[in-house]
Write a structure and sequence with these properties.
The protein has 429 residues and is α+β, with helices and mostly antiparallel strands. It has seven helices and 18 strands.
């Protein structure tokens, strides 16, 4: 009897996914635990392992197929010694799809095909340009100043436009009509024959769009910004990294290399330990305050972003946080994270400082109550004890769900965070 391979549910919110590709082909002998396919879920692209041993008898759903329902039959596996003839006329035992999930976990519906722009891979053919009306003044083209301006802005050779105004004068509408019909020859400004490309939205992009739209519409955001001084932290970081390089073995590879972001994660963890009421989420029946300090850190990946989680960050050293974060980020970009490594978390961090962004406000990721946006460290002239001095300063902005965290509580958290960043020795205890 053939063994059915069904579309797995790889996350709690998944109702369908894209079968990105098969890593096996019909006739291949596979073992339990072997990777057989890559599935694009509403969170990430993940590898799927075989549960049973056997020979791939039939790939029912082709690689690259989108919108495959959870529990839908995607392949048939032949047991040892089983003939492929048993697949002829085979009827699936399992239901084709699960019961419909609540609307809140379903990606937004795609736009109707009738309203979506259609892209042709072939060049757009232009209609022959009409012959302009000859003038009595030796080739002079009569056109209104507005028509000339529109033609110049659009890069149109106005001599190729047929005028309909008095005595054949070219008016603005003539230029616009020629553009719309493709009958206007372009002048100095060259345009591509294909005006745009259409990039299909992945499941991840749809979920990001839906969740962030819901967040901005339903979550009452407010924002708190503080400026923190980084000089002492940078000195401590430099000293620790120097020691790691000095102790490197024959391969000259240090055991760790700390970044400012590693210290930020640890400082957030310590601040949440000191102000635990900021480590909370909103639910309709209650505010859930977390006992563990699990921090989600935004990582940009191809096609979107994902937030791997540093679990129990308050109980780990800065070095442990650093090494764990590097591993999580690398596996996130390679689509190798397990669901439990990016689902959950009580607080988020988004750091765009490495891109030179000095200040921004992030969007709260429900049901979490807070997200900290971290900007770049910049040298500035500041006043210390009545003297002007140069210091490296960094802006951080806390985006807050007002249902969970009030203004004074958010300020208390930022005060604690600032204290730990500006007293980095406390993060090493």
């Amino acid at each position: 009897m053939p063994i059915e391979i069904l579309m797995p549910a790889l996350s709690p919110t998944m109702t369908e996914g894209n079968l990105a590709k098969w890593t096996v082909k019909e006739g291949d002998k596979i073992k339990s635990g072997q990777v057989i396919a890559e599935i694009e879920t509403d969170k990430a692209t993940m590898e799927v392992e075989a549960v049973d041993e056997g020979v791939v008898g039939k790939l029912v759903v082709a690689g690259g197929t989108e919108g495959v329902k959870v529990n839908q039959l995607i392949a048939l596996l032949l047991e040892e010694g089983e003939d492929k003839k048993v697949l002829e006329g085979y009827k699936p035992k399992a239901a084709a799809a699960p019961a419909a999930a609540p609307a809140a976990s379903t990606p937004a519906a795609a736009s109707p095909a009738s309203t979506a722009p259609v892209v042709s891979s072939a060049p757009v053919m232009s209609a022959p340009a009409p012959t302009p009306m000859a003038s009595s003044s030796g080739g002079r083209i009569f056109a209104s100043p507005l028509a000339k301006r529109v033609a110049a802005n659009e890069g149109v050779n106005i001599a190729t436009v047929q005028g309909t105004g008095p005595h054949g004068r070219i008016v603005k509408d003539d230029v616009l009509k020629a553009l719309a019909s493709g009958g206007a020859a372009r002048g100095a400004v060259m345009r591509n024959s294909v005006e745009f490309i259409k990039i299909p939205n992945s499941n991840m992009r749809k979920v990001i769009a839906r969740r962030l739209t819901e967040s901005k519409q339903q979550v009452p955001h407010f924002y708190l910004t503080v400026e923190v001084e980084l000089n002492r932290l940078l000195d401590v970081r430099k000293e620790i990294n120097f020691e790691a390089e000095s102790a490197a073995g024959k391969d000259k590879k240090p055991a760790y290399k700390l970044s400012v972001n590693d210290f930020v994660i640890k400082a957030v963890a310590q601040a949440l330990k000191k102000v635990p009421t900021a480590n909370a989420s909103w639910y309709d029946d209650a505010i859930v305050q977390y006992n563990n300090v699990d921090i989600s850190v935004a990582v940009a990946i191809e096609g979107g972003l994902i937030t791997p989680i540093v679990r129990n960050a308050d109980q780990k050293t800065v070095v442990q946080v650093s090494n764990e974060m590097k591993d999580l980020a690398a596996r996130a970009r390679a689509n190798k994270l397990a669901p439990e490594e990016f689902q959950g978390g009580g607080f988020s961090i988004s750091n765009l400082g490495m891109y030179g962004v000095s200040h921004f406000a992030a969007i709260v990721n429900p049901p979490q109550g807070c997200i900290l946006a971290v900007g770049a460290g910049e040298e500035k002239v500041v006043v210390r004890h009545g003297q002007m001095v140069v210091r490296t300063m960094m802006n951080v902005t806390l985006s807050v769900d007002h249902r969970v965290v009030d203004g004074a509580l958010g300020a208390e958290f930022l005060q604690a965070f600032k204290h730990y960043v500006e007293s980095p020795s406390l993060l090493l205890l």
